[in-house]
């Protein structure tokens, strides 16, 4: 049995849902009835065949003319052949009937066994999750456990541990894996006379005038906006829905292929979430004025981390964009930039993004979202390179996103974590920044959501240490001296960096008032789905299901979402049928047939990968009111 799946519903799904089981039972019942009909027909053929033979025998005994006798003989021979053929068919039908009845009983027993095993497995998983949850709570409440440990020096961290004003509460659940925290140790130095090198590498001993651009990088004065934008959306309805009841049939599957009601969405599309990465664009505006490439790297690294700050409470799934859907952010007046996203592939889901800033930088990327449900947690892996170029200096930075993980799918409070390493490379100067997102551990003394990093030049010499948390702030400290530490208990050596006092690079904006009832949207996120005149008919703001959900009409939104998904299925089937070039997979056929409107595939010379890049024309078309063209609309 197969069923349509996917957020837009056009991939086959090998996982049996409750509806599939019911349909399978119905199919078996129908087959049994057909077998009964076949048995009845078998009896009727045998009965009428015997009667025909008797009638022909009676005709043979009658005295009839010679010519009629010959014809009767031919009919009799044909009747005999029919009888022989009928008998063979009857015997075959009997064999098939017996075999089908035997196997039908086996199939029913096997199906019943599989259903019982599945129910038992689901109950076992849920029970294990509850026991795990109890053990986690017991560990956190254990007497004698330090809650805010202090240290004489910081291991890869220049921030003090979070105090009582932290947003953590007793319901927060944490990742239970022990990780090696950092590969270096930082020691803050104050007095100049204490900064003499003793067998180590010594750098400049003070913040210099070229570092002044880092002062107040996180502080951006906000004047009155030129365009008044909304500051709130309707409160989220209080619908209760069990996520595990839907996800338990989807273990190991791609998230975009799991049919989801809007109850698990937030009223923004993935294109709008991608645009949210620009919330702290002022870091790049500031980086334009850096004369030092390693100093500029610090601000680029802070920008890359800041894009995760909006995810800390955002465990809802954004809408999966339709193929050809677009989203523009035309904010030259207040943000100094223009941004355009387009959904360029549906399987796998992929979005292309291009940003131009009047302050002297541009950013582009093609991101493919790969996601898997692993049972207790959900992994979201954004694939694809992000490019950032500063026009004046020619510095060209490339990096990739880290993995996001949503925990406690079965039981407990949902929470999200960012894990993995990010390497940012300046392809002009060969400077590098190594960022490490540390997964939270019960047994770690580190602060939650911690990020550490080191900025090095092309020779491998470290210049800055970065530290902070991806949900709050990032700091950088200039390295004065570096030296190896003594081997630890595991025999490993860490590098000790002696640094100047840290400077704040980035600090998260506070959430708007009542944010907890507005999907925890930031100030920028609240404006992304606001209606605007002059946008393309493919713009995410015009999606009716998303708009209905934002207004709180979730039942109507689900109905509209199904309509749009069916429309997309029909369009996709037509494209695949039209492909007559003998492509391999359906994805290859679709990629071969569908051509993005505002982006085109090119070979990226830096990564060696083929990616969709902006080919121009969108903003010019908007100015002459020519955006009515497009492959997709939502009517």
Automatic annotation (TrEMBL):
GO MF assignments: cholesterol binding
Keywords, comma-separated and alphabetical: Coiled coil, Lipid transport, Lipid-binding, Membrane, Phosphoprotein, Transport
InterPro entries: OSBP_sf, Oxysterol-bd, Oxysterol-bd_CS
Residue stretches in coiled coil: 111-138
Record keyword Transport present: yes
Region: Disordered, residue numbers: 1-23, 140-170
Location(s) in or outside the cell: Membrane
Superkingdom as given in the UniProt entry: Eukaryota
UniProt keyword annotation of Transport present: yes
Membrane topology value: Peripheral membrane protein
Gene Ontology BP terms: lipid transport; spermatid development
Main subcellular localisation: membrane
One Gene Ontology cellular component annotation held by this UniProt entry: perinuclear endoplasmic reticulum
Any Pfam family the entry gives: Oxysterol_BP
Family to which this protein belongs: Belongs to the OSBP family.
Record's protein name: Oxysterol-binding protein
